Automatic annotation (TrEMBL):
This is IS66 family transposase. Residues 114-155 form the Transposase IS66 zinc-finger binding domain. It comes from Ottowia flava. Residues 36-106 form the Transposase TnpC homeodomain domain. Residues 169-450 form the Transposase IS66 central domain. Residues 457-494 form the Transposase IS66 C-terminal domain. The keyword Coiled coil applies. The keyword Coiled coil applies.
Amino acid sequence: MIDLPDLETLDAEQLRQAVRQLAQQVQFKQALIDKLTHENALLKRLKFAAQSERYTPKQRSLLEDEIEADLAAVALEIEQLAPRQREGKKQPKRLPLPANLPRREIRHEPDSITCRCGCRMLRIGEDVAEKLDYEPGVFSVERHIRGKWACAQCETITQAPVAPHIIDKGIPTTGLLAQVLVAKYADHLPLYRQEAVFARAGLAIPRSTLAQWVGTCGVRLQPLVDALRAELLTHRVLHADETPVAMLKPGNGKTHRAYLWAYAPGAFENMKAVVYDFCESRSGEHARQFLGDWTGSLVCDDFSGYKALMTTGVTEAGCLAHARRKFFDLHAAGKSQIAETALAQFGKVYDIEREIKDATADERKAIRQQRTRPIIDALHQWMTLQRQKVPGNSATAKALDYSLRRWQALTRFVDDGQLPVDNNWIENQIRPIAIGRNNWLFAGSLRAGQRAAAVMSLVQSARMNGHDPYQYLKDVLTRLPTHKASRVGELLPHRWRPEQSA
């Protein structure tokens, strides 16, 4: 939103400039609405035409889940951009929740029953709204009862307000929404399996409804992920890695290889977090778009997609574990003496790193200069001599070349106490994604992959800070509707505290 000064204080030229700014803003918002409306139409066509014989029943159910979630997310984004378009639209009538479910009443009454005119108000009725709650294995119903109080003197009616909800006028509590999100993105349970789990608990919630909840929550939680990314980029040292994920290609029912990129502050930074970025390919352009103008030390592997970053002010820090792994594989395959010697020297470096992991950056640098530098220099000299003795196309030559070609990046940690020795920190954070792939057939769309990346960023970051992802998401979803946008950083996983929960 463009901030404009008081129009009455502007001269003619300034008014024309203000009008041009407003016109540009309107044009941008309209283009975005048109784009989302077009995407919405495509999703609806996919939803109602998902009867191709190319899909097995299980594949269709997974795809339809993602389409429902995408439809809900797009509809919410359109509503946020153009809320007036919903005026006068009839809301669908919702079936009552089953009478056999246990209920607990939450009463909302005015702080005072004295009217502003001084008269004592009389209770004339109440409004009741029911929300569906869930604790593992047990459904219950929250009955929100809002008493109606009337003043006979001034003929006014007073009711206590109900706090805004993450899904306006929806039936799920934030506890149920958190359960669905954690089951889908942390426990890797597709919605059709959750539907069966809920049915055993006493209420079969249609997977289309679950998908709509997921889509809406994805949009609501996005500001937290944006704030997490912004704060991550304030750190001087970052880790980066990527892993393939199958994504459905629109139109032909086939999948292609997409990638989930992962970024985290350095292992010695004072922030524990990870941000996932779902992209259609492994192109280095995605890393450039994510990092933007960031300049610092990037700990990464030898993937060519990161190389272009090094021309924009980013410093490459190599992964010693990748170099060691080449010799480990060589030794495992043929008991190579060269590999055994290299592994012994790498082992000495890692022994030192284990001793100094809790030291300060300055202390770490000093010890590395004193103890690690001689080992590294001797190892480089030995590798150079060995490379002259082995054939150029041998496995040993390839292992040696990997280290020698990247020696400056691999040993940069010796001169910088804030740099970790390898990229294992981010590889550990990307491992849950690799585990989850065993339960995924594919990501149903680019939007679905991006939504999964956003929620998993919060879930995994909560885990890294020792939080229960369910309790974290439940509390955040409860507070978000009334939380100031300028203070959204307070809800980030590395700052959130359980005692803050209402």
